[in-house]
Specification:
About 40% of the residues lie in helices and about 25% in strands. With about 180 residues, it is an alpha+beta fold. The chain folds into 2 domains: about 100 residues, Phosphorylase Kinase, domain 1, CATH 3.30.200; about 30 residues. The chain has a 5-stranded antiparallel beta sheet, sandwiched between helices. Strand 1 and strand 2 form a beta hairpin. It comes from Acyrthosiphon pisum (Pea aphid). InterPro entries: Kinase-like_dom_sf.
C-alpha cells in the first residue's frame, strides 16, 4: 500500500497522506485519495492486477458517459506501472452523494428512483457497443454474428451435457 501511495504521489505531483479502500473485487481495488491535509481529493484510483483491463474499462466508461443517461465517473488518466508487481491504474472523478441503497423517505420518491434506474439501464442498452462484449473485466472484442454463434455453441453443448429426459430426438432435430 505504501508503494502505491508513493507512486500516486509521484504521478499527481502532490503528497498523499493516505489511501482508503472503497471497493475490493477479485481483479481490482478502488481507492479514495487524501491530500497532506487529510482532505479528500477530487479523484479516485482504481488498481488493476492484470494488464489491459484498465484501458478497456476506461473505454467503456467513456462510451457510457458520452452516450448514456446515467452519470458515470470521468476518466482523467490511465497509469501503466512497470514496478513489481506490474499493474495498471485508472484515475477517475470522485462522486459525492447518497448511495442508491439509502432508503427513500416517501413511496413516491422510491418509485421515482426505481424509474430513473430502469431508464438509465435501458439507456445503456441502447448504446452501440462498438464491438465490446462481456463483463467489464472482459478483454474480448467481438461482433454480433461471432457473439451469437458462440452463445449458440455454449447452449447446445450445455443441452447435450445435461440431456434432459423430456427433450426428444424430434426436439433436437427441430433445433
Amino acid at each position: 500500500m505504501e508503494q502505491l501511495r508513493s507512486e500516486l504521489a509521484l504521478i499527481l505531483g502532490e503528497g498523499i497522506s493516505r489511501l482508503e479502500t472503497i471497493s475490493e473485487q477479485a481483479q481490482s481495488r478502488l481507492y479514495a485519495l487524501y491530500d497532506n491535509d487529510g482532505k479528500p481529493m477530487p479523484l479516485v484510483a482504481k488498481y488493476f492486477r492484470h494488464q489491459g483491463r484498465a484501458a478497456l474499462e476506461a473505454k467503456k466508461l467513456t462510451m457510457l458517459g458520452h452516450d448514456g443517461l446515467v452519470t458515470v465517473p470521468a476518466v482523467f488518466g490511465l497509469v501503466l506501472s512497470q514496478q513489481p508487481p506490474v499493474h495498471e491504474m485508472l484515475l477517475m472523478a470522485r462522486f459525492n452523494g447518497v448511495s442508491a441503497e439509502a432508503p427513500a423517505r416517501t413511496a413516491g420518491r422510491w418509485e421515482q428512483l426505481c424509474e430513473q434506474i430502469v431508464e438509465g439501464v435501458l439507456g445503456w442498452h441502447r448504446i452501440d457497443s462498438h464491438g465490446l462484449v462481456g463483463r467489464v473485466d472482459s478483454v474480448q472484442e467481438n461482433n454480433w454474428p461471432a457473439w451469437y454463434r458462440q452463445r449458440i455453441e455454449v447452449l447446445w453443448a450445455t443441452l447435450g451435457y445435461l440431456s434432459p429426459p423430456f427433450f426428444t430426438l424430434e426436439d433436437r432435430q427441430i433445433l
